[in-house]
Amino acid sequence: MSDSKKDVTFSLKAMVNEEKRKVLFADVDSTFADVLLSFLTLPLGTIVRILKKHYEDEQPVFGSLTTLYNGLENLDSVHFWTKGAKSILLHPQSSSDDQRKRLKLDVSDSPPAEYFVCEKDCDESTSFDGESMYHDNVIACKYSKSHSTKRKVAGIQTTPCDDGVFTINTASFVVTDDLCIVPTSSGLLQIVSFLGITDMDKAKQVNVTFGYAEVIALLKASLMSSTPLSDVIFSKTGQVKSTALKLQHMTLSDQIGNAPISNSKKMTLKLVVQKSTNKVLYAQAEEDFVELLFSFLIIPLGGVQRLLASNSLNKCMDLLYMSVADHIHSKYLKTGARNLLIKPKIPHGYVSENHILPLPEEGLSGFYQDMLNLFSSVKFPNGRGKYLKAPRTFMVTDDLTVTPLCIASALSFLNEMKIPMSDVKEVELQIGLKEALDILRASLTSDSALSNGLNLSNQISQKQKNQGCQVQPQVGL
Known about the structure:
The protein is α+β, with helices and mostly antiparallel strands. It is 33% helix and 16% strand. It contains 18 helices and 13 strands.
Protein backbone atom coordinates (compact mmCIF):
# COMPACT_ATOMS: atom_id res chain seq x y z
CA MET A 1 0.00 0.00 0.00
CA SER A 2 1.26 3.47 -0.85
CA ASP A 3 2.32 5.83 1.94
CA SER A 4 -0.34 8.31 0.83
CA LYS A 5 -3.06 5.73 1.46
CA LYS A 6 -1.67 5.00 4.93
CA ASP A 7 -1.87 8.72 5.71
CA VAL A 8 -5.65 8.75 5.13
CA THR A 9 -7.71 9.50 8.23
CA PHE A 10 -11.40 9.51 9.17
CA SER A 11 -13.10 11.55 11.91
CA LEU A 12 -15.71 9.76 14.00
CA LYS A 13 -18.01 11.18 16.65
CA ALA A 14 -18.55 8.32 19.08
CA MET A 15 -21.01 8.17 21.96
CA VAL A 16 -19.44 6.12 24.73
CA ASN A 17 -20.08 4.90 28.24
CA GLU A 18 -16.68 5.50 29.82
CA GLU A 19 -17.57 3.67 33.02
CA LYS A 20 -18.25 0.46 31.09
CA ARG A 21 -15.63 1.28 28.44
CA LYS A 22 -18.21 0.68 25.76
CA VAL A 23 -19.04 2.44 22.51
CA LEU A 24 -22.80 2.92 22.12
CA PHE A 25 -22.62 4.14 18.53
CA ALA A 26 -20.61 6.36 16.21
CA ASP A 27 -21.67 8.92 13.61
CA VAL A 28 -19.79 8.39 10.34
CA ASP A 29 -19.87 9.84 6.85
CA SER A 30 -20.25 7.92 3.60
CA THR A 31 -16.50 7.52 3.06
CA PHE A 32 -16.06 5.61 6.31
CA ALA A 33 -19.28 3.65 5.77
CA ASP A 34 -17.90 2.62 2.35
CA VAL A 35 -14.75 1.26 3.98
CA LEU A 36 -16.78 -0.74 6.50
CA LEU A 37 -19.01 -2.15 3.75
CA SER A 38 -15.93 -3.03 1.69
CA PHE A 39 -15.13 -5.68 4.32
CA LEU A 40 -17.94 -7.71 2.70
CA THR A 41 -16.09 -7.66 -0.65
CA LEU A 42 -12.85 -9.10 0.73
CA PRO A 43 -12.20 -12.78 -0.04
CA LEU A 44 -11.38 -14.80 3.06
CA GLY A 45 -7.87 -15.46 1.76
CA THR A 46 -7.31 -11.73 1.28
CA ILE A 47 -8.34 -11.05 4.87
CA VAL A 48 -5.85 -13.61 6.19
CA ARG A 49 -3.12 -12.12 3.97
CA ILE A 50 -3.89 -8.55 5.08
CA LEU A 51 -3.73 -9.46 8.77
CA LYS A 52 -0.60 -11.55 8.29
CA LYS A 53 1.19 -8.73 6.50
CA HIS A 54 0.18 -6.07 9.02
CA TYR A 55 0.75 -7.99 12.25
CA GLU A 56 3.69 -10.11 10.98
CA ASP A 57 4.91 -12.39 13.82
CA GLU A 58 1.82 -11.55 15.88
CA GLN A 59 -0.57 -12.71 13.15
CA PRO A 60 -4.05 -13.10 14.69
CA VAL A 61 -5.83 -16.42 14.38
CA PHE A 62 -8.98 -16.12 12.26
CA GLY A 63 -10.85 -19.32 13.10
CA SER A 64 -9.27 -22.16 11.13
CA LEU A 65 -8.74 -20.00 8.06
CA THR A 66 -5.33 -18.74 9.18
CA THR A 67 -3.96 -22.28 9.45
CA LEU A 68 -5.68 -23.23 6.18
CA TYR A 69 -3.98 -20.30 4.43
CA ASN A 70 -0.59 -20.93 6.02
CA GLY A 71 -0.78 -24.61 5.12
CA LEU A 72 -1.57 -23.69 1.52
CA GLU A 73 1.34 -21.26 1.49
CA ASN A 74 3.70 -24.01 2.69
CA LEU A 75 2.34 -26.66 0.30
CA ASP A 76 4.85 -27.43 -2.44
CA SER A 77 3.86 -26.17 -5.88
CA VAL A 78 4.46 -29.65 -7.29
CA HIS A 79 0.96 -30.58 -6.07
CA PHE A 80 -0.69 -27.92 -8.28
CA TRP A 81 -1.29 -27.97 -12.02
CA THR A 82 0.56 -24.66 -12.28
CA LYS A 83 2.31 -22.24 -9.93
CA GLY A 84 -0.29 -19.68 -10.89
CA ALA A 85 -3.10 -21.87 -9.55
CA LYS A 86 -1.57 -21.71 -6.09
CA SER A 87 -1.00 -17.96 -6.46
CA ILE A 88 -4.69 -17.38 -7.25
CA LEU A 89 -5.69 -19.05 -3.99
CA LEU A 90 -3.16 -17.02 -1.99
CA HIS A 91 -4.05 -13.73 -3.74
CA PRO A 92 -7.70 -14.10 -4.77
CA GLN A 93 -9.42 -11.35 -6.71
CA SER A 94 -13.05 -10.36 -6.32
CA SER A 95 -15.73 -8.87 -8.52
CA SER A 96 -15.47 -5.64 -6.48
CA ASP A 97 -11.74 -5.01 -6.90
CA ASP A 98 -12.31 -2.01 -9.16
CA GLN A 99 -14.75 -0.44 -6.70
CA ARG A 100 -12.41 -0.93 -3.74
CA LYS A 101 -9.63 0.92 -5.54
CA ARG A 102 -11.86 4.01 -5.53
CA LEU A 103 -12.29 4.00 -1.75
CA LYS A 104 -10.69 6.67 0.39
CA LEU A 105 -8.85 3.74 2.00
CA ASP A 106 -8.56 0.31 0.39
CA VAL A 107 -7.16 -2.11 2.97
CA SER A 108 -6.87 -4.98 0.47
CA ASP A 109 -3.58 -3.62 -0.90
CA SER A 110 -4.38 -5.25 -4.25
CA PRO A 111 -2.14 -4.27 -7.19
CA PRO A 112 -3.68 -2.64 -10.29
CA ALA A 113 -5.19 -5.18 -12.64
CA GLU A 114 -2.89 -6.11 -15.53
CA TYR A 115 -3.73 -7.98 -18.68
CA PHE A 116 -1.80 -9.24 -21.68
CA VAL A 117 -2.79 -8.25 -25.21
CA CYS A 118 -1.47 -9.09 -28.64
CA GLU A 119 1.51 -7.07 -29.93
CA LYS A 120 0.49 -7.54 -33.54
CA ASP A 121 -2.07 -5.57 -35.52
CA CYS A 122 -5.07 -7.13 -33.79
CA ASP A 123 -7.82 -4.69 -32.97
CA GLU A 124 -7.65 -4.11 -29.23
CA SER A 125 -11.41 -4.49 -29.00
CA THR A 126 -10.99 -8.16 -29.87
CA SER A 127 -8.24 -8.88 -27.36
CA PHE A 128 -9.05 -11.03 -24.37
CA ASP A 129 -8.29 -8.42 -21.74
CA GLY A 130 -10.41 -8.55 -18.70
CA GLU A 131 -13.82 -10.20 -18.63
CA SER A 132 -12.49 -13.22 -16.80
CA MET A 133 -9.66 -14.42 -14.60
CA TYR A 134 -7.11 -14.30 -17.42
CA HIS A 135 -5.15 -11.46 -15.88
CA ASP A 136 -1.79 -13.19 -16.10
CA ASN A 137 -0.72 -14.10 -19.63
CA VAL A 138 -2.96 -14.91 -22.58
CA ILE A 139 -0.86 -17.16 -24.76
CA ALA A 140 -3.03 -16.99 -27.86
CA CYS A 141 -5.17 -14.51 -29.75
CA LYS A 142 -7.97 -14.85 -32.29
CA TYR A 143 -5.59 -14.60 -35.27
CA SER A 144 -2.55 -16.67 -34.40
CA LYS A 145 -1.31 -18.75 -31.52
CA SER A 146 2.20 -17.61 -32.33
CA HIS A 147 1.57 -13.94 -31.57
CA SER A 148 3.56 -12.49 -28.71
CA THR A 149 1.92 -10.47 -25.98
CA LYS A 150 2.51 -7.31 -24.02
CA ARG A 151 1.33 -6.10 -20.66
CA LYS A 152 -1.51 -3.64 -20.34
CA VAL A 153 -2.60 -1.99 -17.10
CA ALA A 154 -6.35 -1.72 -16.91
CA GLY A 155 -7.65 1.81 -17.26
CA ILE A 156 -9.64 1.98 -14.04
CA GLN A 157 -9.93 4.84 -11.62
CA THR A 158 -7.56 4.30 -8.68
CA THR A 159 -8.08 7.61 -6.86
CA PRO A 160 -10.72 8.18 -4.18
CA CYS A 161 -14.19 8.71 -5.62
CA ASP A 162 -15.91 11.97 -4.64
CA ASP A 163 -19.44 10.78 -5.37
CA GLY A 164 -19.31 7.64 -3.25
CA VAL A 165 -18.43 4.04 -3.98
CA PHE A 166 -21.09 1.88 -2.32
CA THR A 167 -23.07 4.65 -0.61
CA ILE A 168 -24.21 8.09 -1.83
CA ASN A 169 -21.67 10.70 -0.79
CA THR A 170 -24.28 12.97 0.85
CA ALA A 171 -25.49 10.22 3.18
CA SER A 172 -24.41 9.81 6.80
CA PHE A 173 -24.80 6.79 9.04
CA VAL A 174 -24.82 5.50 12.59
CA VAL A 175 -22.63 2.48 13.33
CA THR A 176 -23.13 0.45 16.49
CA ASP A 177 -20.43 -1.31 18.46
CA ASP A 178 -21.21 -4.57 16.65
CA LEU A 179 -21.21 -2.92 13.19
CA CYS A 180 -24.89 -2.59 12.47
CA ILE A 181 -25.26 0.40 10.12
CA VAL A 182 -28.38 2.54 9.72
CA PRO A 183 -28.89 5.92 8.00
CA THR A 184 -28.73 8.93 10.31
CA SER A 185 -31.98 10.20 8.77
CA SER A 186 -33.85 7.56 10.80
CA GLY A 187 -33.63 9.95 13.76
CA LEU A 188 -32.36 9.57 17.33
CA LEU A 189 -35.41 7.94 18.95
CA GLN A 190 -35.95 5.43 16.18
CA ILE A 191 -32.26 4.50 16.03
CA VAL A 192 -31.98 4.08 19.81
CA SER A 193 -35.14 1.95 19.87
CA PHE A 194 -34.32 -0.09 16.78
CA LEU A 195 -30.74 -0.84 17.82
CA GLY A 196 -31.61 -1.45 21.45
CA ILE A 197 -29.03 1.03 22.73
CA THR A 198 -29.14 1.52 26.52
CA ASP A 199 -27.33 3.69 29.11
CA MET A 200 -27.96 6.82 27.06
CA ASP A 201 -28.05 8.95 30.24
CA LYS A 202 -24.37 8.21 30.82
CA ALA A 203 -23.35 8.72 27.22
CA LYS A 204 -20.49 11.06 26.42
CA GLN A 205 -19.31 12.20 23.00
CA VAL A 206 -15.67 11.68 22.06
CA ASN A 207 -14.00 12.59 18.78
CA VAL A 208 -11.82 9.82 17.41
CA THR A 209 -9.49 9.73 14.42
CA PHE A 210 -9.19 6.46 12.51
CA GLY A 211 -6.29 5.84 10.17
CA TYR A 212 -4.96 2.79 8.37
CA ALA A 213 -3.84 0.99 11.55
CA GLU A 214 -7.20 1.53 13.25
CA VAL A 215 -9.17 0.30 10.24
CA ILE A 216 -7.03 -2.86 10.11
CA ALA A 217 -7.54 -3.29 13.85
CA LEU A 218 -11.29 -2.87 13.31
CA LEU A 219 -11.28 -5.54 10.58
CA LYS A 220 -9.41 -7.87 12.92
CA ALA A 221 -11.72 -7.15 15.86
CA SER A 222 -14.86 -7.53 13.75
CA LEU A 223 -13.85 -11.13 13.00
CA MET A 224 -13.06 -12.10 16.57
CA SER A 225 -15.14 -9.94 18.90
CA SER A 226 -18.73 -8.77 19.34
CA THR A 227 -17.55 -5.27 20.36
CA PRO A 228 -15.01 -4.21 17.72
CA LEU A 229 -15.54 -0.45 17.99
CA SER A 230 -15.03 -0.55 21.76
CA ASP A 231 -11.96 -2.74 21.36
CA VAL A 232 -10.33 -0.31 18.95
CA ILE A 233 -11.46 3.04 20.34
CA PHE A 234 -10.74 2.33 24.01
CA SER A 235 -7.43 0.76 23.13
CA LYS A 236 -6.65 3.89 21.10
CA THR A 237 -7.43 6.18 24.06
CA GLY A 238 -5.27 4.08 26.36
CA GLN A 239 -8.10 2.88 28.60
CA VAL A 240 -7.75 -0.76 27.60
CA LYS A 241 -4.40 -2.44 28.18
CA SER A 242 -4.79 -5.17 25.60
CA THR A 243 -6.91 -5.85 22.54
CA ALA A 244 -6.26 -9.59 22.65
CA LEU A 245 -9.42 -11.25 21.39
CA LYS A 246 -10.70 -14.76 21.92
CA LEU A 247 -12.48 -16.86 19.34
CA GLN A 248 -16.18 -17.46 19.75
CA HIS A 249 -16.95 -21.13 20.34
CA MET A 250 -20.63 -21.62 19.74
CA THR A 251 -22.95 -24.53 19.09
CA LEU A 252 -23.50 -24.88 15.38
CA SER A 253 -27.00 -24.54 14.01
CA ASP A 254 -28.56 -26.92 11.53
CA GLN A 255 -29.65 -23.96 9.40
CA ILE A 256 -27.56 -23.83 6.24
CA GLY A 257 -29.26 -21.26 4.10
CA ASN A 258 -31.52 -21.59 1.10
CA ALA A 259 -29.26 -23.55 -1.24
CA PRO A 260 -30.66 -26.84 -2.61
CA ILE A 261 -29.09 -29.89 -0.98
CA SER A 262 -30.70 -33.04 -2.34
CA ASN A 263 -28.74 -33.35 -5.58
CA SER A 264 -25.43 -31.96 -4.39
CA LYS A 265 -22.22 -33.76 -5.23
CA LYS A 266 -20.82 -36.06 -2.55
CA MET A 267 -17.22 -36.85 -1.69
CA THR A 268 -15.79 -39.45 0.66
CA LEU A 269 -13.75 -38.40 3.66
CA LYS A 270 -11.94 -40.76 6.03
CA LEU A 271 -11.64 -39.31 9.54
CA VAL A 272 -9.18 -40.43 12.18
CA VAL A 273 -10.99 -39.82 15.48
CA GLN A 274 -10.12 -40.07 19.16
CA LYS A 275 -12.53 -42.61 20.63
CA SER A 276 -12.68 -41.14 24.12
CA THR A 277 -13.63 -37.63 22.98
CA ASN A 278 -15.04 -38.10 19.46
CA LYS A 279 -12.70 -35.30 18.43
CA VAL A 280 -11.37 -35.36 14.86
CA LEU A 281 -7.60 -35.74 14.91
CA TYR A 282 -7.13 -35.52 11.18
CA ALA A 283 -8.80 -36.45 7.91
CA GLN A 284 -7.36 -38.50 5.08
CA ALA A 285 -8.63 -36.60 2.07
CA GLU A 286 -8.39 -36.75 -1.70
CA GLU A 287 -7.79 -33.66 -3.81
CA ASP A 288 -11.52 -32.95 -4.24
CA PHE A 289 -12.04 -32.29 -0.52
CA VAL A 290 -8.87 -30.21 -0.27
CA GLU A 291 -9.99 -28.11 -3.24
CA LEU A 292 -13.27 -27.57 -1.39
CA LEU A 293 -11.36 -26.23 1.62
CA PHE A 294 -9.13 -24.04 -0.56
CA SER A 295 -12.23 -22.65 -2.26
CA PHE A 296 -13.17 -21.03 1.07
CA LEU A 297 -10.30 -18.60 0.52
CA ILE A 298 -11.71 -17.19 -2.73
CA ILE A 299 -15.18 -16.41 -1.32
CA PRO A 300 -15.84 -12.77 -0.28
CA LEU A 301 -17.32 -12.26 3.19
CA GLY A 302 -20.58 -11.16 1.59
CA GLY A 303 -20.68 -14.43 -0.36
CA VAL A 304 -20.04 -16.41 2.83
CA GLN A 305 -22.92 -14.61 4.52
CA ARG A 306 -25.19 -15.38 1.58
CA LEU A 307 -24.25 -19.07 1.63
CA LEU A 308 -24.87 -19.26 5.37
CA ALA A 309 -28.07 -17.17 5.30
CA SER A 310 -26.55 -14.53 7.65
CA ASN A 311 -26.00 -17.23 10.26
CA SER A 312 -22.22 -17.43 10.25
CA LEU A 313 -21.94 -17.26 14.07
CA ASN A 314 -19.87 -14.10 13.59
CA LYS A 315 -22.24 -11.50 15.03
CA CYS A 316 -20.56 -8.44 13.53
CA MET A 317 -20.33 -9.78 9.99
CA ASP A 318 -23.92 -11.06 10.22
CA LEU A 319 -25.10 -7.58 11.23
CA LEU A 320 -22.96 -5.78 8.65
CA TYR A 321 -24.44 -8.01 5.94
CA MET A 322 -27.99 -7.55 7.20
CA SER A 323 -27.46 -3.78 7.29
CA VAL A 324 -27.02 -3.83 3.52
CA ALA A 325 -29.68 -6.45 2.91
CA ASP A 326 -32.39 -5.00 5.14
CA HIS A 327 -31.59 -1.70 6.86
CA ILE A 328 -30.08 0.69 4.29
CA HIS A 329 -32.64 1.97 1.81
CA SER A 330 -31.71 1.88 -1.88
CA LYS A 331 -31.72 5.70 -2.04
CA TYR A 332 -28.57 5.71 0.11
CA LEU A 333 -26.75 3.15 -2.07
CA LYS A 334 -25.07 3.51 -5.44
CA THR A 335 -26.68 1.69 -8.35
CA GLY A 336 -25.73 -1.99 -8.23
CA ALA A 337 -23.93 -1.66 -4.89
CA ARG A 338 -26.33 -3.87 -2.94
CA ASN A 339 -25.79 -6.85 -5.24
CA LEU A 340 -22.02 -6.34 -5.25
CA LEU A 341 -22.01 -6.49 -1.46
CA ILE A 342 -24.52 -9.24 -0.68
CA LYS A 343 -24.61 -11.24 -3.94
CA PRO A 344 -20.97 -11.19 -5.07
CA LYS A 345 -19.82 -13.30 -7.99
CA ILE A 346 -16.58 -15.25 -8.19
CA PRO A 347 -14.21 -14.29 -11.04
CA HIS A 348 -14.66 -16.56 -14.04
CA GLY A 349 -12.40 -19.61 -13.88
CA TYR A 350 -11.84 -19.55 -10.11
CA VAL A 351 -14.44 -22.17 -9.23
CA SER A 352 -12.94 -25.65 -9.22
CA GLU A 353 -14.49 -28.48 -11.19
CA ASN A 354 -14.63 -30.29 -7.83
CA HIS A 355 -16.66 -27.58 -6.12
CA ILE A 356 -19.73 -28.37 -4.03
CA LEU A 357 -20.69 -24.91 -2.85
CA PRO A 358 -23.10 -23.01 -5.13
CA LEU A 359 -20.67 -20.22 -6.04
CA PRO A 360 -21.97 -17.91 -8.80
CA GLU A 361 -19.30 -17.05 -11.38
CA GLU A 362 -18.97 -13.91 -13.44
CA GLY A 363 -20.22 -14.56 -16.95
CA LEU A 364 -18.44 -14.05 -20.26
CA SER A 365 -19.79 -12.06 -23.16
CA GLY A 366 -20.84 -13.90 -26.31
CA PHE A 367 -17.58 -12.98 -28.05
CA TYR A 368 -15.43 -14.51 -25.32
CA GLN A 369 -17.59 -17.61 -25.14
CA ASP A 370 -17.07 -18.12 -28.87
CA MET A 371 -13.32 -17.49 -28.69
CA LEU A 372 -12.60 -19.31 -25.42
CA ASN A 373 -10.93 -22.23 -27.17
CA LEU A 374 -8.31 -19.89 -28.69
CA PHE A 375 -7.28 -18.37 -25.36
CA SER A 376 -5.38 -20.01 -22.57
CA SER A 377 -4.04 -18.88 -19.23
CA VAL A 378 -0.72 -19.89 -17.73
CA LYS A 379 -2.47 -20.19 -14.37
CA PHE A 380 -4.97 -22.88 -15.34
CA PRO A 381 -4.66 -25.57 -18.02
CA ASN A 382 -7.12 -24.60 -20.76
CA GLY A 383 -8.51 -21.94 -18.45
CA ARG A 384 -10.23 -24.43 -16.17
CA GLY A 385 -10.57 -23.85 -12.44
CA LYS A 386 -8.68 -26.94 -11.42
CA TYR A 387 -6.04 -26.50 -8.78
CA LEU A 388 -4.56 -29.80 -7.58
CA LYS A 389 -3.10 -32.63 -9.59
CA ALA A 390 -4.79 -35.98 -9.21
CA PRO A 391 -4.68 -38.48 -7.72
CA ARG A 392 -3.36 -36.91 -4.53
CA THR A 393 -3.98 -37.82 -0.88
CA PHE A 394 -3.61 -35.27 1.91
CA MET A 395 -3.69 -35.08 5.67
CA VAL A 396 -6.05 -32.37 6.98
CA THR A 397 -5.89 -31.62 10.69
CA ASP A 398 -8.81 -30.39 12.77
CA ASP A 399 -7.73 -26.76 12.24
CA LEU A 400 -7.64 -27.33 8.44
CA THR A 401 -3.86 -27.46 8.07
CA VAL A 402 -3.24 -29.34 4.81
CA THR A 403 -0.10 -31.43 4.21
CA PRO A 404 0.66 -34.37 1.89
CA LEU A 405 -0.30 -37.62 3.61
CA CYS A 406 2.71 -39.43 5.04
CA ILE A 407 2.12 -42.44 7.30
CA ALA A 408 5.23 -41.74 9.36
CA SER A 409 4.13 -38.14 9.88
CA ALA A 410 0.61 -39.26 10.83
CA LEU A 411 2.03 -41.62 13.47
CA SER A 412 4.35 -38.89 14.76
CA PHE A 413 1.37 -36.54 14.95
CA LEU A 414 -0.52 -38.99 17.20
CA ASN A 415 2.56 -39.59 19.34
CA GLU A 416 3.10 -35.86 19.82
CA MET A 417 -0.49 -35.55 21.01
CA LYS A 418 0.13 -38.56 23.33
CA ILE A 419 -2.85 -40.45 21.96
CA PRO A 420 -2.43 -44.25 22.07
CA MET A 421 -3.47 -46.32 19.08
CA SER A 422 -6.06 -48.05 21.27
CA ASP A 423 -7.90 -44.70 21.53
CA VAL A 424 -8.08 -44.15 17.76
CA LYS A 425 -10.73 -45.16 15.24
CA GLU A 426 -11.50 -44.46 11.59
CA VAL A 427 -14.86 -43.14 10.45
CA GLU A 428 -15.82 -42.75 6.81
CA LEU A 429 -18.31 -40.00 5.95
CA GLN A 430 -19.94 -38.65 2.82
CA ILE A 431 -19.42 -34.91 2.47
CA GLY A 432 -22.07 -32.98 0.58
CA LEU A 433 -23.36 -29.42 0.53
CA LYS A 434 -24.69 -29.42 4.10
CA GLU A 435 -21.43 -30.73 5.53
CA ALA A 436 -19.39 -28.31 3.39
CA LEU A 437 -21.40 -25.34 4.67
CA ASP A 438 -21.11 -26.53 8.26
CA ILE A 439 -17.32 -26.79 7.93
CA LEU A 440 -17.22 -23.34 6.32
CA ARG A 441 -19.25 -21.88 9.19
CA ALA A 442 -17.04 -23.54 11.79
CA SER A 443 -13.88 -22.35 10.04
CA LEU A 444 -14.88 -18.72 10.67
CA THR A 445 -14.95 -18.93 14.46
CA SER A 446 -13.32 -22.17 15.57
CA ASP A 447 -9.84 -23.67 15.44
CA SER A 448 -11.46 -27.13 15.40
CA ALA A 449 -13.37 -26.75 12.15
CA LEU A 450 -13.72 -30.45 11.35
CA SER A 451 -14.88 -31.50 14.84
CA ASN A 452 -17.27 -28.57 15.25
CA GLY A 453 -18.42 -28.51 11.65
CA LEU A 454 -19.13 -32.20 11.23
CA ASN A 455 -20.58 -32.73 14.73
CA LEU A 456 -19.31 -36.28 14.57
CA SER A 457 -21.45 -37.82 17.31
CA ASN A 458 -24.63 -36.88 15.45
CA GLN A 459 -23.15 -37.96 12.11
CA ILE A 460 -22.31 -41.44 13.39
CA SER A 461 -25.66 -41.79 15.17
CA GLN A 462 -27.57 -40.80 12.03
CA LYS A 463 -25.47 -43.07 9.81
CA GLN A 464 -26.08 -46.06 12.09
CA LYS A 465 -29.80 -45.26 12.19
CA ASN A 466 -30.02 -45.07 8.39
CA GLN A 467 -28.18 -48.37 7.98
CA GLY A 468 -29.90 -50.25 10.75
CA CYS A 469 -26.97 -49.83 13.15
CA GLN A 470 -24.87 -52.17 11.01
CA VAL A 471 -22.05 -49.68 10.42
CA GLN A 472 -19.09 -50.12 12.73
CA PRO A 473 -16.10 -47.76 12.59
CA GLN A 474 -12.79 -49.38 11.76
CA VAL A 475 -10.20 -49.41 14.53
CA GLY A 476 -6.65 -48.24 14.00
CA LEU A 477 -4.90 -46.49 11.16
